[in-house]
Amino acid sequence: MPSTEHIRNFCIIAHIDHGKSTLADRFLELTHTVSEREMKSQLLDSMDLERERGITIKLTPVRMRYTHNGQEFEMNLIDTPGHVDFNYEVSRSLAAVEGAILLVDATQGVQAQTIGNLYLALEQNLKIIPVINKIDLPIADVPKTTAEIIHLLGCEPEEILLASGKSGQGVREILDTVIERISPPRDHSDRPARALIFDSSFNEYKGVVASVRMVDGQMKKGNKIFLMSTQTPAEALEVGFYVPKFKTAETLLNGEIGYVVTGLKEVRDCRVGDTITLLGADKQSGLAAEPLPGYKEVKPMVYAGIFPKEGDAYEELRDAIDKLKLSDSALVYEAEHSQALGFGFRCGFLGMLHLDIFQERLKREHALEVVITVPSVAYRITTTSGETTFIKSPQEMPEMGKIADVQEPIMKVDIITPKDYVGGVMALVSERRGRYLTTEYLSSGVDQRALLHYELPLASLITDFYDKLKTATSGYASLNYEIKNYEATKIVKLDILVAEEPVEALSTLVWSEEAFKIGKKIVESLKESLPRQQFELKIQAAVGGKVIAAERLSALRKDVLAKMSGGDYTRKMKLLQKQKKGKQRMKSHGKVDIPSETYLAVLKR
C-alpha cells in the first residue's frame, strides 16, 4: 500500500481580486500540468461569466506533479472564490484540504473578506501560509502589508512569502513551502472506504459527477458504491482526477482528491457533504460504520421570486434550476404561484451578487429569460397561539391581530476603510439602522486603515448597501458579513391598490416607520409606468386597510368634438357632459390589466 507521505492538499484563500486565479495559473505552468498550447489566463475559471467579470464563482480542483529535493509530490490544489456571497464554496473546499495559502495583495493590504476567509480556515485547524502577491507593481507597499498580516496572524515576518502571480517571481518558493509546512493527509488506507463529496456537477454523457476527497481507504473503477445520507446505491463507472480536465485513473487512493462518475440521473441523489462508501458482495462488508461529518446546512439570506417570462417555460426553468443547484449547493428553492406572474420558484441566495450570477447563468447556460421579484429576507413570526414560523414573502404574512412577535435577522458586519472615510461610513451605517460596536486600526502611519465592527439588519444590507458603501469611500472600502441572531422588530405588509383592487404581486414587507416613504415611492413609480386608461385611475398604498399614499393617473381624452362642424355652443357642451358620464360609469366598473414591464419597474425598485 503506498503511504500518503507524497501527497499535499491545499487551497488558496483571499479577498476578491487579490490574484488567486493568476497564482494558480503560474502553479500550472511551473508544474507543466497544462501544455503551453492549452494555457490561457485564469485557466481554472472555466465559466465565461467568471472570465468576463474577473471573479471566481466556483471552486475548482486540480492535481499537479512537482519535484522537491529529488522526490516527486502529488499536489492537489483547490482554487476558491473570494466574494462573501460565495463563502460556502470556500468552507467546503477547506474541509477537503490540510493547509491554505492566504494571499494578500501588496497594493490593497488586508481586506474584509481576507479576514472572513481566514477565520473559516482557522476553524478547520488548517496550516496557514501567508503570501504577499503583486510585489512587482510600482504602488506595492510590502512593509505596510507585512505589518497588517503580522497584526492579523501573529506570525514572524520571515514566515511571510513574497510573490508575483503575474511575473512568476517567488512561485517556486511557495510550492516548496507548501511541501515543507503543510502536513500530508493521515494514512487511513486500511480502513473501509469513505469519500467526502465537496462538489458535484452534471455531465450530459456521464450523469452526476461527484468531486471527492478520499478520507479513508480507496476506490476503484467498477466498485459498487453507496451514498450514505441519501441511502442511494450506485456504481463508480469511472474514477480519476482533474488536470483541470477529467483524467481517468484505475484507483483513487487514500488522501487523494479526484472525481467519481456515479451514473446517477437524479440530481437530488448526490448531495454535497454526503459520504460515499463501498457496498460489499453481502451488501454490508466494506460499508463504513458512520458517515463523515459533512457540512453545516447553509442558510440563505436573500429570497426572491423567479418566474419564467413565458408562462410555458416553467418545466424548463425547473430543470435548469435543478442542474444549477448541483454545482451551486448554497441555492435553496421551492415552487411558488403568483397571481400576476404565474408559476415559478421562491429561491434563497447568500447575497445580491449570488442572485445576479444565478440569473445570468440561467440566461446563458439554459437560454431562459426570467422575471425576478423584489428581494426580501426571512422573518421569524410568533403567532398569538404560540406557533413560530418563517415567512419569506408578503403573501405568507398572517393578519396583524394574530401576530404576537416579529423578529428579523441581524448581521455582524466588518468594514475595512481608509481612516479618512470613517465618518462617511459611520453616517451611512447609522442611516441604515446599524449599531456601532468597535473600531480597530490595522496599520499605523499616514494611510492608516480602520476595521469597523457593526450590527446591521439584513434588510438594510440586501438592496444597495454595498454600492452606497463604495460611493462613500471612493471605492476603497471592503465588506464582510455573517448572520448573528434574530431580534424583535416592527414589520408591516404594504398593500398596493390599483383602481381600488389590491395587486398581490406588488405587496411588500417593510419597517412600519418607513412604510409611508416606500409606499410613496411605489405609487409614484406606478404613475410613471402604468398605461393610461379611458377613466381616471386611483393608485394607492395601504397598510392594514388604511391608505397612506396615493396618486391619480388622469384619463385618456378622446376628442369627441372633432367630428362636429359648426352649430351652437350648447351642442358641444351636451356632448362633453355625455362623455363625462360615460367616464364616471367606467370608473366604477373599470378593470386594469397591468403589463409585466410595470411589475418589473416596481419589483426591481
What does this structure look like?
- With 605 residues, the chain is an alpha+beta fold.
- The protein folds into five domains: 7-181, Rossmann fold (3-Layer(aba) Sandwich), CATH 3.40.50.300; 194-278, Translation factors (Elongation Factor Tu (Ef-tu), domain 3, Beta Barrel), CATH 2.40.30; 302-372, Alpha-Beta Plaits (2-Layer Sandwich); 402-488, Alpha-Beta Plaits, CATH 3.30.70.240; 494-502 and 520-603, Alpha-Beta Plaits.
- The strands form six sheets. The protein has an eight-stranded antiparallel sheet with strand order 11-10-16-7-8-15-12-13, covered by helices on one side.
- Helix 7 (314-327) packs across helix 8 and helix 12 runs antiparallel to helix 14.
- It is globular and about 110 Å long.
- The termini are far apart.
- The mean pLDDT is 79.
User: What form results from the Cα inertia axes?
Assistant: globular
* Low-pLDDT segments: none
CATH superfamily caption of the largest domain = P-loop containing nucleotide triphosphate hydrolases
Mean pLDDT: 79
CATH class membership of the largest domain: Alpha Beta
Count of runs of 4 or more consecutive helical residues: 14
Count every beta strand, where a strand is a DSSP E run of 2 or more residues: 31
Our measurement of the CA-to-CA distance between the termini, rounded to an integer number of angstroms, reads 62 Å
Strand order of the largest sheet: 11-10-16-7-8-15-12-13
CATH topology of the largest domain: Rossmann fold
**CATH-derived architecture of the largest domain:** 3-Layer(aba) Sandwich
Q: How many domains comprise the coordinates?
A: 5
